[in-house]
Design a protein that fits this description.
Helix content is about 45%, strand content about 15%. It is an alpha/beta fold and about 240 residues long. It has one domain: 3-Layer(aba) Sandwich (Glycerol-3-phosphate (1)-acyltransferase), CATH 3.40.1130.10. The termini are far apart. The protein is globular. It has nine helices and seven strands. InterPro entries: Plipid/glycerol_acylTrfase. Pathway: Lipid metabolism. Keywords: Acyltransferase, Lipid biosynthesis, Lipid metabolism, Transferase.
Amino acid sequence: MLLYPFFYLFLQKEKWHPKAHYLNRLWGQLFFPLCFLPIHVIHQARLNKQQQYIFCANHTSVLDIAVMGVVLDHYYAFIGKSSLAKLPLFGYMFTRLHIAVDRSSRMSSYKTMHKALETLDKGRSLMIFPEGGIVSKNPPQMTPFKDGPFRMAIEKQVPIVPITLPYNWYVLPDDSGLLFRRHEIKAIVHPPISTQGMTIEHMPVLKQMTYEVIDNELKKYSFVQEKATEQAEKVKS
């Protein structure tokens, strides 16, 4: 609420939008310490702040969006579900600063793709959850990725940056409302995957490469595997 007047001001003109984006990062840097949720970010490679990227992360919690505001210091646009636009206060910021999509509408998906490509043309990066939402019934196990991010990356010859979020599904499960579990939040930002020279025929390979980078990282965390097994047993029972 304290920051919202500044959000509103900076959202009135597109040239001021980077300032609103900076406020998002500031909010995240204040919010998580106040909730006693430490964030540990591991950068496996140094990213060029002048380079555009399409960031792709696994998606298991509403916490993922807020975490990205802390993890990434690039000027990027989210592609997220249109229902986010209905949230009080946050919705206005989201529709002005990011890209909303109604996944049940082909026309909306087409318009979203067009707007995302325009965003890349303007020199801005994209942040996408390639699973297409929080859809896994057995987190942190991922579901197959959608084609969109990889099609755009190849068309614009923009690198893909995989990001692994191993604990968010446990800290704030999708079905828990706003009831946090106390645990470290971790994000692993992997080295970029180049798309230089790729054509649309390479899209399945690029998609699989990205999936495997994140999936292999998730498998390194014994805690994740133990909790995933517990979750699967609960579902079966």
